[in-house]
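Continuing the batch. This is chain 6 of the set; chains 1 through 5 are on the previous pages. Same settings as before, nothing changed between runs. Recording input and output for traceability.
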Amino acid sequence: MRTRLAIKVHALLEHYFPERRLFLRSDSDTRFIRLRPETQLFAFFGTTLIIAWTIIATAIILMDSIGSGNFREQARRDQQTYELRLNEMSAERDARTAEALAAQDRFNAALKQISEMQTQLLASEVRRQEMETGIEVIQTTLRRTMREREAAVKELAALKSEADGTMTAESGPQASSLVDMLTAALTETARERDAIEAQALDAIREAEEIELEMALMREKNNQIFRQLEDAMTVSVEPLTKMFQSAGLDTDSLLNQVRRGYSGQGGPLTPVTFSTKGGELTEEAQRANALLGEMDKLNVYRIAAETAPFAHPLKSAYRFTSGFGTRWGRPHNGADFAARHGTPIHATADGVVIHADWQSGYGRLIKIKHEFGIETRYAHLAKIRVKVGQRVSRGDHIGDMGNSGRSTGTHLHYEVRVNGRAKNPMTFIKAGSNVF
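Output for chain 6:
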């Protein structure tokens, strides 16, 4: 049975691959090589496999080359996009900073003008009170003079009556002299009365002019206060939203900063206006409210320097992984990929509390900031700070690497508030809307 099957298979192979002979000729001899059907079949399949492998390998190489080219092109486009975005963010931050400085200058100038106008108002108030006192004195004098005039008129009438009843030839000259004297006294009294009345009218007119001047100054003060209040609203509200969007309690934050800057004569010493130590006027209350907003603006400025609102990278990068769950495990930070050795910068003022190797983090830097905030920079190639060193926002603290449990060169960046991990992009995005 096997023999017949072998014969049939051999005959089939003979049909497709007939036996061939390959002659090899030399100078003195001729030989040949017999190529059996089985040998030709093996040679055919071997050649086919080699050709197929060559085609597949070439296709794979071409596809990989095309894919690599597309990947590099995409990476280049991403890099350009990130660079443009960084440039826009930098320009926007510079513009916001310039606006804040300009608003601060305008506020200082307006505050100086308010102080001058407050002084003028106080002087006008003193003048008005003096005029009121003078008018009251004039009115008192006028009333006294009128009473004296009426008394003199009554006395003159009585003397005339007495003179008409008792006048004799001997007393006639004396009575006439007395009447002339009384008449002259009454005339002088009338002149004094008229002069006092004229002075009173002048004082009333001057008081009315002072009142009008004070009303105009109050209206001008109102316009200045409205402009300052609008400017402070525009300056303070974005900062309040920035801290709130980062999940920070603004009231607690302001109180903590004020406790840290509570020395008398310091930059945050409360300033108030008062009028003679008595009850505050409406203008003084509004000025104090503006000074309170300015104090809040200064506090926010200090807090913004000590909270991590900046970006740890100033060069091009790829955002490779965000905050949250990754592969079924919590990912407590954000990953940024860039070239090996890319500079890493501190995102806020603080003190270095760790600068060494730590298990899966590899080379790790921990910086302690205000308000219970801590930032971590992991998988570094080189650490450029020491424990206990104070750093400022933007300082070069390390270089990007691939140390620890890492699949490639990148920075693992964390933000922790009171020991709890927070999304770092929340702080970065909040800061990018203001700075």
